[in-house]
Task: inverse folding
């Protein structure tokens, strides 16, 4: 199964693609999609949707794991991110891709074993889980790969609990 992880943002949306076979995860590719403040908001959101849909096609993605919005932070930045999440969800669903949402706490817990891990701990554990030589850069791409790991961990636990 090919999983697309998304760390949504208006300026930069991180993405990562992993392949999961029998609970083992192999990195395929990762990066960020950028937009610029000089662009109209609608153009920025449209660009993100088009670029993400191109990634789905390029990497033959089966499902998407997306970090859900966390409102305890800055509500001003949460609104544009919510718009991005909605637009990407629409685009992905229209392509037949199921979207799963995970909170930052769920992602940290799945990747590091603790919900209180800091950004550097998460990135290092992503490196270790995926057997990478270096921590994935930029940060948003590492976060997107963490989304993928969370999805695999979550679904592996569900499968085990049904046995």
Result:
């Amino acid at each position: 199964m090919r999983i697309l992880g998304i760390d949504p943002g208006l300026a930069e949306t991180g993405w990562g693609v992993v392949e999961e076979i029998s609970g083992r995860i192999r990195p395929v590719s990762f990066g960020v999609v950028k937009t610029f403040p000089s662009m109209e908001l609608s153009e920025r959101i449209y660009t993100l949707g088009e670029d993400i849909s191109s990634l789905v096609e390029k990497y033959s993605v089966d499902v998407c794991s997306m970090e859900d919005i966390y409102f305890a932070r800055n509500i001003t930045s949460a609104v544009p991110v919510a718009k991005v999440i909605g637009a990407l969800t629409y685009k992905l669903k229209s392509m037949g891709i199921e979207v799963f949402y995970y909170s930052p706490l769920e992602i940290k817990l799945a990747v590091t074993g603790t919900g209180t891990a800091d950004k550097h701990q998460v990135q290092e554990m992503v490196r270790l889980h995926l057997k990478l030589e270096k921590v994935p850069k930029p940060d948003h791409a590492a976060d997107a790969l963490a989304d993928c790991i969370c999805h695999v961990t979550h679904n592996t636990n569900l499968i085990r609990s049904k046995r």
Notes: The helical segments are 41-59, 75-94, 104-112, 119-129, 139-161. DSSP finds five helices and five strands in the chain. The two ends are 21 Å apart (CA to CA). Residues 139-161 form the longest helix (23 residues).
